[in-house]
Structures are given as C-alpha cells and as structure tokens.
Amino acid sequence: MSKRKEASASLTPVRGWNSYDCYGCAINEAQFRANAEAMAVKLLPHGYTYACMDALWYYDDVTPTQLGATSTREPHLDAFGRPVPSPLRFPSSADGKGFKPLADAVHRLGLKFGLHIMRGIPRLAVERRLPVARSRRKAPAIANQASRCSWENTMFGVDMGKAGAQAWYDSLLELYAGWGVDLIKADDFGNTPYHREEVAALHQAVKNCGRPVRLSLSPGIMAHEMMTAHPHVAEHSDLWRISADIWDKWNDVRYLFPLCAFWSGAIGPASFPDADMLPYGMMGLGNKPTLPTRKSRLTADEVRTHFTLLAIARSPLLFGGDIPQLDDFTLAILTNPEVLAINSRSRGNRPLWLWPRDDRYVAWTAEAEAGPEKYLAVFNLGDEPAEISVDLAEHGFGARVRLRDLWARADLGTAAKTFAPRLAPHACALVSCQTIEK
User: How many structural domains are present in the chain?
Assistant: First the structure.
C-alpha cells in the first residue's frame, strides 16, 4: 500500500454534487455558486461535501456541435499550456486568478471543490509549442499524438517514456492545488485501453502537489480489461468509475448490478468503486439536446433501488440534479441517515449470490463497522411482482433475527429462518438485522 493510501485509511466514499447531469458542459459561475449555496443548506448537514465542476470549463461556449472530431474551439490555456477557466463563463477567474476565488467561496460555505480534467496535454499547447513548467521540454516533446480520446478531440495523450512527461502532470496538479482544488475527476484514464502509465503519473502528481486531493478516475473500465486493471486502479486512485455514464433510465440502473458485484472485492477502506452519479430531481438545464430539461424519469421505486445499491456497495454518492429545485422526495432519499450510515461505515459489502444465479433477483449484505448489526438488501429487477426469499441462517444472519426497515425507519419485529419480502417490479427492501438466535 502506498504512503498516500496508508494516510487515507479512514476515508469514506465521496459524497456531494456534480454539475454534469444538470448542466452538461455549459455551466457558468452563477449556476455553480447557486448550487453550492443550496448544497450548504440542504445537503452539507448530511455529509454531502464536494461541489464538483465537470468538463470543458476552459471554453467560452460549449454546444453539442462543438463536441466531436470536427471541433475547432480553442481552450483557454496559461503560458505553460495548462487549461484555465473561461473568464466569460467564470468572471472571478479573470486576470490569471483561475478557480481560486470560486474555490475560496466554496470553502467558506464549508464545502470542498472538485474539478474535472481530461487525460493528456491540450493539442493547442502542442501546436503552439508551449513550454512544460518545471521542465526544459516543450509540449510536442512529451505528446503522444496517436493517443486520443474517442469522444473529445482537444487532447493528446502524454508519452510517459519521455523526459518532461511527469513534470507535465506535476505542474498541472501544482496549479490546481494552488487554486484550492480538493478532488480531481480525471477523465479518459479508465477508458479502453486502460492508461496505466498515465494513471500512475497522475497518482504521483497528486502525492507531490502538497495538498490533500482525492483522485477519481473515469470513465468505466471496459469489461475485457477489468481483471488486469483491478489491483492497479485500486492502488492508484481513491475512487474509479466502473460504468459508462448512468442516466435516468431503468436499463442504466439494471446495468450497474453485475458491475457492482464484480468490483465488490475492491471496496475500501480507502478505495471505492464508483457507480457514477445520482440522476434524480430536476436535470438537463444546460440546454443540450441530448440532455433535455426534465424531472428524472426514474420511478420512486427505481430511485430507491438505485440508491440502495450504491449505498450498500459503498459507491461515492454524487447527486446530479439541480439543488435549488430539490424536491421533498429526492431530499428524503438523499438524506436518510440509516441508509447513509451503510455507505459511510460498513464492511463485508458483497452480493449474497453470484450474478447471474437469477438476474431478476439480487441480494446484498454488509455488516456494521462497529456493533452487532448486519444489513440485507433484496432487489426485484424483474418486471413482475415477486416474493424473494433469503435463508437467514444459511447466509450468517441467524435462525431468528430482529429486523428494521431502514427506508421506513421502522422496526419490523422478528423473522425466523427466512426473510421473504414481496416486492413490486424494480423495487427493493433494505433491513438491518440483529441476531436473536444463532
């Protein structure tokens, strides 16, 4: 285990808000501040700490037609080729201040500031032959021009075999740590192929930057690379995406179950497989055609099922909706203290049976980090109502147990031998169990 991992052994999964589900790549400073201010009032008391700025904040104008291989945009860069905020969208960043004024404002609210970056070095820095800070090299000397992101065309990869390559990532983290960044969401690192050398370089840069910064890798590692990436990604990041983007569609939620099962062996105490954001509430205010303004299309049962899976799998919990418009139902889901306790402090988190024993019916278990409670989540992923039976003794809960419904926050009495809730389609049950008789 690295020294950084040893120092972070008491970490819990990141909890907060990310701008992408609501604003895409088009958020501005006023919108970000409004969400941070609302978050400090509504969600911070429940442990939601990180306010995260998602992609392409270094462009003046981001429209759907500008994403892709034909983009002709020019990013805002400093003298060393490092992306800096668009002063048009983020006025407080003018005159070389970067995101420090915004991060300071976030910190005054009691929150932490997260920032999205892309893998590699800007193409424009290569074209302009800009110098690499803390190095005698220039951008073309370290760029791997054959290594390109498949969905965003403004960066080249970095050839970690070249002198000056580590200096690039060190200088990037030095700049952003100086602004007061507390979390880096690093995109295109976990894609196919898994960029092992650049992951290690970014991990080293975080260790070198002089500020505690949590490192999140994205997007989800593709299935055929999962086994080889498994130990490396857990060692070199605090959280890493295990999926593609998750939207407010039932099929997206269902797709997470086998992925969470696969990665369950890598959970904690300082490493957290990341099942992406919580697409609830009001979304799509960025006016991007693929992200229309809407209330989440997930039903109440589907929201509860999704949140339960992420809670018991100890995934980071990053809300994606508009916090100023947060509705009562969504607020109650996000702030249930008994469910959040599983996400924060539990161990032994795993599915009870291997996928797909029957891929319609799933059960997970965990136990309290301290105390006698064990947790049991049962899911009906099918399209018909079903009674799903769990043999309590077989799975270590005991022959007779005392049950508490954690979503209802109500005691259910005792159960002997089995727990067999009847669940509506796409619904779940989540209970704590205390053994009365073994």
Answer: 2
Range list of β-strands (E), 188-260 = 214-217, 239-241
CA distance 183 to 79: 24
What's 420's domain CATH number? 2.60.40.1180
Asked, for residue 236, whether it belongs to a domain, the answer is yes
Residue 29 lies in a domain: yes
366 and 324 part of one domain: no
Residues 184-224 have pLDDT tens digits of 999 999 877 889 999 999 999 999 999 999 999 998 776 66
Give ∠ CA 174-176-177 in degrees, rounded to 5. 65
C-beta of residue 155 within 8 angstroms of C-beta of residue 123: yes
Which residues 6+ apart lie within 8 Å of 391 measured at CB? 417, 418
- Looking up residue 244, the CATH number of its domain turns out to be 3.20.20.70
CB 186 within 8 A of CB 215: yes
* pTM assigned to the model: 0.94
Distance between CA atoms of residues 260 and 364, nearest Å: 10
The values of phi and psi at residue 374, to 5°, are -120, 160
**Residue 41: burial class (beta carbons within 10 Å; 0-12, 13-18, 19+):** exposed
Q: What is the mean pLDDT of residues 350-379?
A: 89
Angle, CA of 243, 65 and 79, to the nearest 5°: 85
**Angle, alpha carbons 267-437-398 (nearest 5°):** 30
